[in-house]
Amino acid sequence: MSTNLTSGQAPELDGTGRRVALVCARFNDLIVDRLEVGARRALTSVGVAEADIQTIRVPGALEVPSAIKAIVASGRFDAIVALGAVMRGDTYHFEVVSDQSAAGIMRVALDTGAVITNGILTVDTVEQANERAGDDDQNKGAGAALAAIEMLMVLSQIDG
User: Fold this and answer.
1) pTM over the 0.85 mark
2) Beta carbons within 8 Å of 153's beta carbon, 6+ residues apart
């Protein structure tokens, strides 16, 4: 199966034989658990075996990049999906956590060449988080998981 890099359409995804790590922040776990369910459902729908999906839990979004770095170093996974939920409060802490978590995830991805997608929600309200972690096509955990499989296919085509 090949991915057409020049077409504007999403390719047919095939995750057969792929191993995927889901790095889930425990903070705001009610939302994160639903993102994880969406990610697992999406991955199995494109052929990733349930046994090839492993969840690693960390305290919060700021700890996600460190865990991802260790997972990449292990060489055990083809792709990593970061899942979490950061909600705006009354202090600057929201910006610090959101910005530094995203920057750390991107840094590990760029420094290592690993396929890592960011499904960490950054929202103003619980309602917004619930909308993005629903049981429908808008589940951002599912979207991040499918993006990881697509990137594996794209990079495989680029590598030849």
Assistant:
1) yes
2) 1, 3, 11, 13, 14
